[in-house]
């Protein structure tokens, strides 16, 4: 039984068609059919039911396909590790960033990495957490940087917590609330709110802060994955933004945004983490990018405390 034939089995199971599977593995349909028949004969099991409408995996086949996926994963790791032994660099590092890590790290992370490894390419994915977790598990990303509280309980993921970034409310310079001596949470509801798409734990925190009933929607005027767009919007309107000081430190220095001190606001923050596959060895260049991202997130954090447990 060869890894090549196991790859044929997985391809046929996932495509559900000899034609599509043959195209995927770069074989003719007759050659793929012979390969599948050979492994079925070797195992003494029928893995697929053939019909005019396509191919269906049998109950026995489902077990074999799942085991085959594991074998292929380990085989890919073996090949990758062998490459790492032969060279100090791999051709590409693939990074996934959530909205707040992206606005903190970009473009400095890319520039800093390019100076260290000018011959290594970078692939950047900016997306919501669940999409990037799926991409990491599918080995389409080398590591991701997101809030660790959105991560599933999955032993395939290795998580390195970073220092907590405390959150605050921000408005434009000259905002009506900026000059008030005492601002309370109820005052925030008098102004438009802008935000990134909120994960469930942040939904609950904002509901409690603004004293909004659980079944009511948070009154958001603008929702956007790009924090830079949100900051620009807030700089030009009376809208309010909840963000970490680390994600608006340039605007604070330029005095285009100012913090709104809310007296009765609970402490809310983001618990960033670096996330990799537990059984996957990063390339040397990937390790450099990972360490650089962690260092930059900790260094820029204006309200750093110990890592969230």
Automatic annotation (TrEMBL):
<dbReference type="GO" id="GO:0003700">
    <property type="term" value="F:DNA-binding transcription factor activity"/>
</dbReference>
<dbReference type="Pfam" id="PF00126">
    <property type="entry name" value="HTH_1"/>
</dbReference>
<dbReference type="InterPro" id="IPR005119">
    <property type="entry name" value="LysR_subst-bd"/>
</dbReference>
<dbReference type="InterPro" id="IPR000847">
    <property type="entry name" value="LysR_HTH_N"/>
</dbReference>
<feature type="domain" description="HTH lysR-type">
    <location>
        <begin position="1"/>
        <end position="58"/>
    </location>
</feature>
<dbReference type="GO" id="GO:0003677">
    <property type="term" value="F:DNA binding"/>
</dbReference>
<dbReference type="InterPro" id="IPR050950">
    <property type="entry name" value="HTH-type_LysR_regulators"/>
</dbReference>
<keyword id="KW-0238">DNA-binding</keyword>
<dbReference type="InterPro" id="IPR036388">
    <property type="entry name" value="WH-like_DNA-bd_sf"/>
</dbReference>
<dbReference type="GO" id="GO:0005829">
    <property type="term" value="C:cytosol"/>
</dbReference>
<protein>
    <submittedName>
        <fullName>DNA-binding transcriptional LysR family regulator</fullName>
    </submittedName>
</protein>
<keyword id="KW-0804">Transcription</keyword>
<dbReference type="InterPro" id="IPR036390">
    <property type="entry name" value="WH_DNA-bd_sf"/>
</dbReference>
<comment type="similarity">
    <text>Belongs to the LysR transcriptional regulatory family.</text>
</comment>
<dbReference type="Pfam" id="PF03466">
    <property type="entry name" value="LysR_substrate"/>
</dbReference>
<keyword id="KW-0805">Transcription regulation</keyword>
